[in-house]
Amino acid sequence: MSKYSVRKIDLDNSNDSLSIIYNWVAESTRIIDMGCDSGSLCKLLKENKKCEVYGLEINKSVAQKAQKICKKVWTNSLDEDITFDLIKEKFDYVIFADVLEHTVNPSRILMNTKKILNPNGEILISIPNIAHQSIRLELLNGSFDPELTGILDNTHLHYFTLKSFSDILKESGYIIVEKKYVERDVPREIIKSMLENVGLKISSRFVNKLSDIQSQAYQYIFRVKPSDKIVKREEINIKFKPMLVADKSFLLIKKQNAELMREKEKYQRELMEFDILQNSSFYKSIWTLFKKFRAAKHKVFK
Prior knowledge:
- By secondary structure, the chain is an alpha/beta fold.
- 44% of the residues lie in helices and 17% in strands.
- The chain contains twelve helices and seven strands.
- It has a seven-stranded mixed β-sheet, sandwiched between helices.
């Protein structure tokens, strides 16, 4: 049994990611659950919706349980391109329920998934939201410690926000058909306590910020389908990247200092040339003549 096998699927709970994914799957369709664990979601889809179910589970001992439910279960790694060549079937739905954050290259996996999708097939995905209010408060208190499960699961290789994962989908050649989110609030007294820990007071503005969708969302759930268009990721907006702003300012100052040093060296060379000129016999002769001329001019007009 894996640490994820204990999770129960509550189909009556609209605030549950697996329940949302379950409700998106049409009856009598062919599905594959990537990272199916012991096959609990596949079991519900098979029994309640008459779906033809397949699975992929890298944990072989857990996969044995899923094999009793699924028509076939592969035990290959999603990070190996050959995995998608070994799966000869085509599916109406490919499910990645809290899986992609555990993989090395989610974008490559999404691109490879097109090989096993039917022409009108969809991918159903859930991912944890690293911008959830609980993580924001922990970071404010200087904490970012791994946990057994949840957003900071100690086996996560990637952390996503709504924007960063939407960008990955576009880069991988997908369009979002629908998206939902699972909401989890941090109690107000905990917010107050964590703010007081760093010398801050709770305010209506701060509460409002923690109440927006991107802060309340514990997980995002996506329905996506392939697109003919692959969109390149936008350039990083450094306005909201303090360290990048600092780095850019440092480089600007460094450039300005270099220009000042060049000007200083030029001035020193000119000064040296002037000193040499002052000490030359030619300069002394000219200066002697100038003084004689000035004295004569003064005598004439006296």
